[in-house]
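hey can u check if this looks right to u? its 85 residues, i copy pasted from the old doc so theres a chance i mangled smth
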Amino acid sequence: MNRRQLLQKLTLGNYQNVAMSDFVNLMEGFGFSLLRTRGSHKIYGRPDVDEIINVQNVKGQAKPYQIRQFLRLVERYNILLEEES
């Protein structure tokens, strides 16, 4: 699923059954990158954002509450989605 399609799905409140690979692609589209990994926790961040986002892969799916946290973070910092190449 491309970034814009996934973002549209998520803004409608469909947080269930989101593939972790799609969610990571979306985070990268907003300029976030992997900072570190500790066990099953992957920590993503951006240099211009003071907060980090912690995500976990559960059977190939992203956790719904972590998706909501990410979307609130994007909204709070008014981060725009980069164009896909």
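Residues 64-76 form the longest helix (13 residues).
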